[in-house]
Amino acid sequence: MNTPLQESPQPKTILLVEDNDSYRQIVAATLSKMLPDCQIVEADSVMTARTVAPVESLAVALLDMTLPDGMATDIIEGWQPYMKQGLKVVVFSSYEAEEVAPALQDLGVHQYVNKERGMKPLIQAVQAAVHSADPAEKNVQSAPGSPTMRTEGACHS
Q: Which of 29, 96, 132, 143 is the most buried (most CB within 10 A)?
């Protein structure tokens, strides 16, 4: 009796866009540790972000608000059709949320995190975005920044 081979799921891809090399390396290393089944792709500018990985392959994009050649909103505006199809975008910056939240909300950003809050809220936001991008995780709901936010789970689609 032949049993069909189960195809292994493709790892979810997270695009990390940050122009500060040291900070980007720390975030990438932390994401790799906390979400080991995800593929982390790095970029340091708007132009690189647009070319380093096909947007349709992304599950989550983690974008620094201010980049050397533009703003995260420059990237997000071009990604609107993909965001409507499930791409989750998390934006981080040193700006206060009140300064940027209205514009980001209008663009459909999944979550905004202030860099000054540290690494934990940033990683939690990405984890929540990864889980909400996973059809198997649709029933999981947690408030942004909640201490009970799920941190386990695979990054396979």
A: 132
